[in-house]
Design brief:
The structure holds two protein chains of two kinds. Chain A is mainly alpha-helical. Chain A is built from seven helices and two strands, in the order αββαααααα. Chain A has a two-stranded antiparallel sheet. In chain A, helix 3 packs antiparallel against helix 4 and helix 4 packs antiparallel against helix 5. Chain B has one domain. Chain B has 22 helices and two strands. Chain B is globular and about 70 Å long. Classes of the chains: A mainly alpha, B mainly alpha. At the A-B interface, helix 1, helix 2, helix 3, helix 4 and helix 5 of A face helix 8, helix 9, helix 17, helix 18 and helix 19 of B.
Chain lengths: ~170, ~500
């Protein structure tokens, strides 16, 4: 059968799965006698345990998700209902650059991590220009070092985590 | 006249050199991001949250508030000059503002937008000073059950008045409530949904969620298409509107201000709804509606004053009830909590300098915006031509540094990336993620009040319908849902949002 509104259908499914996940974790996951995850205490309505509110919220979310998905089975008059195309190029470059920033920030310092973040994320743009991006990366990293580390004194490592470099006043801001 | 002595105290707080400076920085940044496409107040405020850790709470909140209403000003500049709304609240300003610019009246349009906004800002400041204290006093009488019902009503109203599907928005709120519960439960000490990660024991930070969902996902979406933009580069002359323009724009400004102020107080109303309805009303009552869309000055004056008035009065539920009416207010609540201030009606009595200082700073901020904006328009126009290719790496690096600095942990950076992907997926599926943030800040408060109410009633759930205040609030919430779900109104609502 044809789904009337695929966008809503999959959105509903997503909500239902997330709700189910939250409810299950609150309730605990058991296979026969085997307890995989103990769950949180439900308590009584008068003395609610930590599991009560999240369990019922999860159930409500699941029900809403199922309703959204069920309603989407009807033919829809809306335009643009097809399952959307995910543009993986910007997703991967941008999020990859962010994750890399997290991985190398401590060992390599903000100067290197920030520069790589700018450069790699820029590869996700359709109009990537190498030279301009090099200049931009240098400028942004210097600006951030001056404002956030120099001015606002946020405790962010600037240089790679090497004993020799940490002696430099420049690296200690 | 208590209101005057209170306002005087507020001005004493707001007029210290440092607070004046933070107010200035806030409105300047706000205008900047309002002008720049692709970055809004939510992402900016969350980026700057960690930077305000070192400031005293009053200064931090003054600056963050300045960013919010400054962005309304900046957004109108781009709407008029480029036909591109910098913020959603300036969408309708494009209709006539851009046409005025094409007729060579860009300066006049910008001038009337700035003056109208200033007028609205002044009125809204007085309104806050007048209405906030009685409302806070009323709220102090609320018991836990009433508070729970108030939050239900606040969340429902927030999504009823916003556009889009109601059921999807409610699902999004519940998702936000659940995300807000991640971390240690204060009553039992159990770390919920932390998956053994020590970083999750304190819960997710609102900055992490906001930067992921509103910062990263927005960038990925903007990068899907190459950019093409035309900036109106003709020289801008004659910023000051002449007498006949002012006469023509005066009544629309007054009506816009009234409408915006009223809608701003409602949860979910805010600047967007204010500007849309102000424009619609002006068009309806105009002698010659055909002028609209072709450069009518009323079509700029009314929505611009409405969105600014609403931006300010939306602080009323925040300051008096501790209930956010839109994602920016949710962030303000997050900022208050970070600074150790418990949001709610007790703020006014416990921290009068903060309360009145913020109100006074809004008036000062509006005055600064007029002084700042009119001479600097040339600079803003130049900034408008900034390529997105240069802008988004800057947003990314500020976001990453901001996310890391919240708790000095790289786990937050990974979590923000995860939320970026989740936000992107939801946006692609036409599930507007804004309600998520409202649920997120209210999650722990709702649970706490539900538990207390049920404890007091010894497990009897009828307490929510036997207490008159609670019952009244719930009835309004149900009525709102019924109203919107009714077929006739649902159709009208859809039309209203589509028209603009």
């Amino acid at each position: 059968m044809k789904i009337g509104h695929p966008k809503n259908f999959w959105g509903g499914v997503l909500f239902a799965l997330i709700g189910l996940g939250f409810a299950f974790i609150a309730r605990g996951i058991r296979l026969a006698d085997l307890t995989l995850h103990a769950g949180y205490d439900m308590g009584t309505p008068a003395r609610m345990g930590p599991g009560f509110f999240p369990f019922w919220l999860g159930i409500i979310l699941m029900v809403l998700g199922v309703v959204i998905a069920a309603l989407s089975l009807r033919p829809s008059r809306d335009t643009d209902v097809a399952f959307p195309r995910f543009h993986w190029r910007p997703i991967l470059w941008v999020l990859g650059a962010v994750v890399l920033f997290g991985v190398i920030l401590r060992p390599a310092g903000m100067l290197a991590a920030g520069f790589l973040l700018v450069f790699i994320a820029s590869l996700g743009s359709q109009s990537f220009r190498p030279v301009a991006t090099l200049v931009l990366g240098t400028a942004l990293v210097s600006f951030c070092a001056l404002v956030f580390v120099g001015g606002l004194k946020l405790p962010i490592p600037l240089c790679p985590d090497l004993a020799a470099l940490q002696q430099l006043t420049l690296c200690r801001a | 006249m208590e209101i005057f002595s209170n306002l005087l105290m507020g001005f004493q707080t707001a007029l210290t050199f440092s607070n004046l400076a933070y107010c200035f920085v806030g409105v300047l940044l706000g205008t900047l991001i309002g002008v720049l496409p692709g970055i809004g107040p939510v992402a900016t405020i969350s980026m700057l949250l960690p930077a305000t850790f070192v400031l005293p709470p009053v200064s931090a909140l003054i600056m963050l508030a300045g960013i919010y209403y400054g962005a309304q000003y900046g957004g109108s500049t781009t709407a008029i000059l480029v036909n591109l709304p910098g913020e959603v609240s300036s969408v309708v300003t494009c209709l006539d503002g851009y046409q005025m610019a094409r007729k060579g009246e860009a300066g006049k349009a910008l001038g009337i937008a700035a003056l109208g906004s200033f007028f609205a800002g002044c009125v809204a400041t007085v309104l806050i000073a007048m209405f906030a204290p009685p409302l806070a006093e009323l709220a102090l009488k609320f018991g836990p059950a009433d508070y729970f019902s108030l939050m239900v009503l606040g969340l429902i109203a927030a999504v009823v008045l916003a556009h889009g599907s109601l059921i999807k928005a409610i699902a999004m709120i519940i998702l936000g409530l659940l995300a807000g519960l991640i971390g240690t439960d204060v009553n039992s000490g159990v770390a919920r949904y932390s998956f053994g990660l020590p970083e999750l024991i304190d819960g997710l930070s609102i900055g992490t969620v906001a930067m992921g969902v509103f910062g990263f996902s927005e960038i990925m979406r903007n990068l899907e298409h190459g950019e093409e933009r035309q900036v109106f580069t003709k020289k801008i002359r004659g910023l000051l509107p002449n007498w006949s323009d002012i006469k023509r724009a005066f009544m629309p400004t007054v009506r816009g201000t009234a409408l915006g102020s009223a809608l701003g107080i409602l949860p979910g109303g805010g600047p967007v709804l204010g500007s849309f309805s102000a424009y619609t009303i002006e068009k309806k009552i105009a002698k010659d509606p055909s002028r609209f869309g072709k450069g009518a000055i009323e079509g700029v004056a009314a929505p611009e004053s409405a969105n600014n008035a609403a931006a300010q009065t939306s602080f009323i539920p925040l300051l008096t009830l501790g209930i956010p009416s839109n994602p920016v207010m949710a962030l303000m609540i997050g900022a208050m909590i970070i600074h150790g201030i418990q949001p709610g009606p007790q703020i006014m009595t416990a921290k009068p300098d903060l309360f009145w200082g913020m109100i006074a700073s809004m008036w000062i901020g509006n005055a600064l915006l007029v002084v700042l904006n009119l001479p600097l328009i040339g600079v803003w126009v130049k900034l408008l031509t900034t390529k997105y290719d240069y802008l988004f790496p800057a947003i990314l690096i500020f976001c990453c540094i901001g996310v890391y600095s919240i708790n000095n942990t790289t786990m937050d950076v990974y979590l923000a990336a995860l939320f970026g992907f989740i936000g992107y997926a939801f946006i692609k599926l036409d599930m507007e993620p804004a309600p998520l943030l409202l649920g997120f800040v209210l999650g722990p408060m709702m649970e706490e009040n539900l538990r207390r109410a049920m404890l007091l009633s010894r497990g009897d759930p009828t307490v929510f319908v036997t207490r008159p205040i609670s019952l009244g609030l719930l009835v309004v919430a149900v009525a709102l849902i019924a109203l919107v779900a009714a077929p006739g109104i649902a159709k009208k609502r859809k039309e209203a949002f589509q028209q603009a």
